[in-house]
């Protein structure tokens, strides 16, 4: 049996809401063909999906655990429950969500955000969507926003089958194969040609059960000339056993379309976050990633963009905050497959109290991608001598006719800046939090107001008690 890792955590009461477990159904711990078949039966999968799950399981058993990133020794799949169904059904009416689940999401601000600034919301609790709704005016534009499992059996079934795990395949890595075997929940979005969704859609993923995994699948198709901003939020209470998140996000951006995908991840610090995100962009299309990673014990997270069409572009803006007991290995990847494509990565990483933050970037410019441009900028801020920050860039440039740049900077908080703020009556703790918030401003300014406030609150929360 592998040794468990227990990680101390700071006070984060709004996220550490723990509901009494009242799940209606859960599979046994571990990962076997019988368990996968059981999940498939619960889901009433079509025959092709059941076969896909079993093939993915076989691939999972054939592949090795990654050995190049943070240690995964504390993660024992024999002790992970891969499917937990809450004691409720999915509803489009907030009033029909069970009181204890509703209270959790209300304390996290989901209904308020929906009323103020969202075109639609999906809320997942453990392995199932418990609420999904889209505003009438958005639906009238022909926009489809529903849970993936309903879409799998409805009029969009052929579209799902054509795109599901075609960008991220089970053979990509061991945890992609795991996802293919036990995925559950998640959202499907289709934006028709020329339609601009002016206010964001959001999915929020909440993992309540200790020792469980969450494996939601998000599939978004933004057709030619369309626009969408999609926001993803995640959190979980802290337990003294390992939890696992191995979701998958597949994004298809059509000709001259634009998709912005924003994420604020605040998993608890017993979480192994092994998420896979990938986008394919056609001619003249734009993919924008905005990413804030604050929680989890260990993270492997590198959103990837394939610039497939001439003139397509990608921007990635990210901030990672690694505190005590955290080893966050994050970054981004881009593949330039066509002429005059462009990519820009701009990241900030912060580490304190012995936290480890590693930034990995991968830029591939293929021979046919002439006159393409790519720039990578990463800055790291260490708040004490016990913390660590690394930058690991990789560049594979196969044409001479390209403009490529990379810069990296690692530093510490300036004592002079802290002294200046303290001389203006600000406490040392607040002064440091202000400096860190300013350092991460490139991400917060890209978010809608409510989410920028949440991110700054998370930074302040992480900074409490960090002096010394």
Describe the structure concisely for a colleague.
The chain is 23% helix and 35% strand. The chain is of the alpha/beta class. It is globular, with a radius of gyration of 21 Å.
What does it look like?
The protein has 468 residues and is an alpha/beta fold. It is globular. The relative contact order is 0.10. The strands form three sheets. Strands 5, 6, 8, 9, 11, 12, 14, 15, 17, 18, 20, 22 and 24 form a 13-stranded mixed beta sheet that branches. The protein has a ten-stranded mixed beta sheet with strand order 4-3-7-10-13-16-19-21-23-25. A two-stranded antiparallel sheet has the order 1-2. Residues 1-21 have low confidence and may be disordered. The protein contains twelve helices and 25 strands. The two termini are 37 Å apart. The longest helix is centred in the N-terminal third of the chain and has 16 residues, at 47-62. The protein has helices at residues 33-43, 47-62, 99-107, 110-117, 136-139, 148-153, 157-163, 174-182, 415-422, 428-439, 441-444, 449-463, and strands at 25-26, 84-85, 120-125, 128-134, 144-147, 187-191, 201-206, 213-214, 217-222, 227-235, 243-245, 248-253, 258-266, 271-273, 276-281, 286-293, 298-301, 304-307, 313-322, 327-336, 342-351, 356-365, 372-382, 388-397, 402-412.
């Amino acid at each position: 049996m592998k040794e468990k890792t227990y990680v101390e955590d700071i006070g984060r009461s709004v996220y550490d809401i723990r509901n009494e477990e009242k799940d209606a159904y859960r599979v046994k711990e571990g990962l076997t063909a019988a368990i996968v078949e059981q999940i498939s039966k619960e889901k009433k999968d079509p025959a092709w999906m059941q076969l896909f799950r079993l093939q993915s399981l076989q691939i999972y058993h054939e592949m090795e655990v990654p050995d190049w990133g943070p240690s995964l020794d504390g993660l024992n799949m024999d002790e992970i429950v891969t499917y937990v169904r809450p004691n409720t059904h999915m509803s489009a009416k907030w009033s029909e969500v069970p009181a204890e689940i509703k209270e959790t999401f209300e304390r996290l601000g989901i209904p308020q955000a929906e009323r103020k600034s969202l075109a639609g919301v999906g809320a997942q609790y453990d392995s199932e969507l418990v609420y999904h709704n889209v505003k009438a005016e958005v639906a009238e534009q022909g926009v489809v926003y529903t849970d993936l499992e309903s879409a799998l059996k409805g009029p969009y079934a052929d579209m799902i089958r054509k795109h599901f795990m075609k960008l991220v395949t089970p053979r990509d890595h061991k945890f992609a194969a795991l996802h293919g075997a036990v995925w559950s929940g998640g959202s499907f979005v289709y934006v028709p040609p020329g339609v601009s969704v002016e206010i964001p859609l959001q999915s929020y993923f909440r993992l309540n059960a200790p020792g469980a995994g969450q494996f939601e699948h998000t599939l978004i198709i933004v057709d030619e000339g369309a626009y969408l901003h999609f926001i993803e939020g995640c959190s979980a209470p802290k337990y003294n056993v390992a939890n696992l998140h191995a979701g998958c996000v597949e994004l298809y951006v059509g000709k001259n379309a634009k998709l912005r995908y924003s994420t604020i991840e605040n998993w608890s610090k017993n979480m192994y976050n092994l998420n896979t995100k990938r986008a394919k962009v056609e001619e003249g299309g734009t993919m924008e990633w905005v990413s804030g990673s604050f929680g989890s014990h260990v993270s492997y997270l590198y959103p990837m963009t394939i610039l497939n069409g001439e003139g397509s572009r990608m921007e990635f803006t990210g901030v990672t905050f690694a505190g005590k007991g955290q080893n966050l290995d994050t970054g981004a990847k881009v593949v330039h497959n066509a002429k005059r494509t462009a990519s820009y990565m701009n990241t900030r990483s912060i580490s304190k109290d012995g936290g480890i933050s590693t930034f990995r970037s991968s830029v591939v410019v293929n021979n046919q991608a002439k006159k393409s441009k790519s720039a990578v900028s990463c800055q790291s801020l260490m708040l004490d001598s016990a913390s660590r920050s690394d930058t690991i860039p990789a560049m594979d440039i196969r044409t001479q006719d390209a403009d490529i740049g990379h810069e990296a900077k690692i530093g510490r908080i300036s004592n002079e800046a802290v002294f200046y703020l303290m001389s203006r009556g600000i406490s040392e703790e607040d002064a440091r939090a202000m400096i860190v918030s300013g350092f991460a401003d490139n991400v917060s300014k890209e978010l809608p107001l409510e989410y920028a406030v949440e991110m700054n609150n998370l930074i302040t929360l992480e900074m409490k008690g960090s002096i010394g």
